[in-house]
Design brief:
alpha+beta, two-stranded antiparallel sheet, 424 residues
Amino acid sequence: MQGSKKYKNDGHAWAVSFLCLLLLLAFVLPASAALIDNERFRLSGFGTVGLVKGGDDTLGYQRDISQDGVYSGDWSLKSHSLLGLQGDLFLTADLDATLQLVAKDRPENSLLDSIEWAYLRYRVNPNLTVRVGRLGVDIFMLSEYRNVGFAYLWANPPMEFYGSIAFDHFDGADIALSTSLGSGTLSAKLFGGRAKNTFSSREGVIDLDLQPMIGGNLAWETDNWRLGLAVASVRFDSPLAVVSEIRSYLDQAAYLGWSEAESISRDLEVEGRKMLYSSAFLTYDSQLWTLTTEIHYIDSGYKGFPSQLGTYLSLGRRVGPVTLYGIAALAKSRDHEVIGEVPEYLALLQPLKAHIQELFDSAPIDQKTLSFGARWDINANLALKAQWDHSWVDAYGGALWLQREALKDNRILDTFTVNLSFVF
């Protein structure tokens, strides 16, 4: 689906944001030493310096659909590089506040967009907590640390699963309950609020307001195993300017006698549509082996974002400070919409029909990837990672990439990622 405004985040804006946060760290860290000693305030941070090479002349690599594309096998520093700063203020034994700022590549890079978390947390008792503010969207395994590359194994998270998830946080509240169950801990969470989904297209940036967003999750964790389920329902609460313009043309086309125009116009309207997200994950981690699998299904009521299935299986083997790993992943959505022919006496509407068909052709996902990589834990706070992704993208299935035009044939693409992740 094409956007309604141009991609605002050029390299200069991204670099300035990154530098500003780096300078903030330089000034804040020494000044906060006294507070840290008092144990009332904790300052921490994380970051990644990453290089990625991928894409071809038509398909631009994106870590997720919020980013600009990397084309023709170029190397990019923007896609994976970021810097984060988090402050935790402990107001009382039961009440604390958290603020997390992240400088990274975004379509829009204002200070407000850089605030990933900003919430108050109250512990009702040791097993029950309530949070209010800007929170992480807890619907997948990396929900709480998707930006913290040091916290997970891979250099490049599987795009078949994470590529279509363009937002990390929402504004609202959640309530979490935990209790012992067998040899592990059972936890449950309910959340609700609103989110903003901003993603890129070849013509610009699309902003979607998602409200209400309501969901919950259930997880069970032991020393070696962790498994969970999550579900969330969202409603698209804003129109798309470019779609509104096309629909006005379709209304005129219907008046002229194109019988299919009215139904196409209804299919293109996003405001008021609902989407149901369901996911499950399983992880196992021992001294030598690590196994992770996730699966999600997005049931969409909007043909511009077809319903899709995404999953992956990751297996890693530790050899001293190095972990070798492989990933198999796939993603597939429903068949794309094909518009009927325009009547011959309305041939002047053919360009409109072709433009709308291009939108539908660009929307589906149909791809598979095999990945191999290695992680070297240099020390307790620093890790070097490298990964090769070999992807098969089928015709009319390139929506996880930034497409210069709808993909009309099958493609095979290689993506190379090298990054250095750290925490402090």
